[in-house]
Amino acid sequence: MKRIILLVVISVVTFSFSLAGAEEILNGAGASFPYPVYSAWAYDYYKATGAKLNYQSIGSGGGIRQIANRTVDFGASDAPLTPAQLNKDNLLQFPAVMGGVVLVVNMPGVKAGAVRLDSEAVCKVYLGNIKYWDDAKLKTLNPKMKLPHNEITVVHRSDGSGTTAIFTNYLSGACSDWKARVGAGTSVKWPVGIGGKGNEGVSQYVKKAQYSIGYVEFAYAEQNKLAYTLLKNSAGNFVEPSFNAFEDAAATGNFDPKKHFDHWLVNAPGKHAWPIAGATFILLAKDKKDSSVKSVRFFDWAFKNGDAKAKELIYVPLPKSLKDKIRAYWKANGIY
């Protein structure tokens, strides 16, 4: 799928669209993961409204700092802030779009969806407790496969990332050993494995190293034609990564407006839910109503008109039920 990159300035990726004489200017900054879809939405929004949108892809931490300092109209973060953090900086928060993290493997002759894993197996592989593909635990999960006696090459991210935060939150929520020994975060001390920078780096390592396993965003697995695994979800079903599975995770996830949607969308209870899904979030300043209203106007337009473009770029639009919750949240806070 094509990703739209419109302007690169030194080390900061940024885009802007405007019509001559347009009065509305909106400035945002933060997470790099949603940059391609935000830029595509901005281009279409400009054509539809003549409004101008500037977004700097500087990472979630930068986006949080900029909205806390009131230097942008909205911040963007792949990790949700807690109600306490939001209250400290007088902020509002809502999810904008979703993605999924998938396990990918490289074994000769093994196609996408052939290998079945559960959270215990993934945990033990990434802790280094399962070292070979024909381990008894993996054979039990894959009784119809002839698994090779080859050592597993574990690949992880070497840089801090929202993808790692989602993956490690999944492991911490499903595996007590992982929670006790490693924990969750954008960057952790990995017990085993080799690190690749960005989703691109992990994808390339898995493609080159036979008998390897890694985790990447769904889009990178699709674009690089990597063999994703099936995963056993909280409902006890083996599911494959798909738009429907991510949407089921969002629909059954506990996104509570009273808690400003602070929710890691992992291990969702839905029957067909993908267990390692995640949303990316928008942050607004309560005391900058004009900025918040402009930001909401853009994202409301995107919720109504941007789903097809999001899917084209291999992002997962929010389900209608969640969009309705977000609109009610905006209205309750006087910005819709």
Amino- and carboxy-terminal Cα gap = 34 Å
Strand content: 15-25%
Average pLDDT reading: 91
Total domain modules: 2
Kindly name the structural category: alpha/beta
Give the CATH level 1 class of the largest domain: Alpha Beta
Our Rg estimate from Cα atoms comes to 20 Å
Number of strands: 14
Cα shape: elongated
Instruction: Note the run of SSEs as H and E.
Output: EEEHEHEHEEHHEHHEHEHEEEHEHHH
Major sheet description: 11 strands, mixed
Count up the helices: 13
CATH homologous superfamily title of the largest domain: Periplasmic binding protein-like II
Q: Name the poorly predicted regions.
A: 1-11
CATH architecture of the largest domain: 3-Layer(aba) Sandwich
CATH topology value of the largest domain:
D-Maltodextrin-Binding Protein, domain 2
Helix content: 25-40%
